[in-house]
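User: Before I run my own analysis I want an independent prediction to cross-check against. Here's the chain; please return only the structure tokens and, at the end, one sentence I can use as a sanity check.
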Amino acid sequence: MIMAAVWTAPGHGSKREMFMGSPLRVEFLFDFGSPNAYLAEIALPAIESRTGVKFAYVPVLLGGIFKATNNMSPFESLRGIKNKPEYQKLETERFIRRHNITSFRPNPFFPVNTLMLMRGAVAARFENVFEPYFRAAYHHMWEVPKKMDDPEVFKAAFASSGIDIDGLIARAQQDDVKKELIKNTNDAVDRGAFGSPTFFVGEEMFFGKDQLRDVEESIVEQTAAAKLKSA
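Assistant: Structure tokens:
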């Protein structure tokens, strides 16, 4: 039985304490620079409510994943392609309608270098302020969008959300934070990840917000199988 420490889906309910003794580890690998990860995360609390699982939130560096897998963002890969960008925009609009998302705004500064943001997420976890940091980061990236790779904009944005950002910036420069983000990113690639959002249900990997139905189906199937095995 896996004992996993997981954190709340910030802004979607009460603060989550340590969730111990779950037979199934379910993970959300995210980078704040991915709009699809932002959209997918909004749908996670409903899945948690229906299935009883709690997602482990795992910060990764998307640029590192792209480099390790020779992948690139849709912003780059779709450049010059006829029809596909328009279809992806349509698909995103459908997802937004399906999940009644009203908070999302495209970031006019996209793509944004997220190294500061993602090191900050690891530092925030180490300092037990992950939840408010997570919600503030998404707010300033995709709800009231800003150029979050500009150091001054970065500091002002988090300060406006009540985050001790000077303390977190200092913490984020320490080796244990840097090594943890590298480890998370390398582990993701070793397990098959090539982008964000990536989900793991046990050892089963799913990529993209459009796979959330399959994620939920796998959770239900694997939970039922585990119950039968232990009966």
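Sanity check: Residues 212-230 form the longest helix (19 residues).
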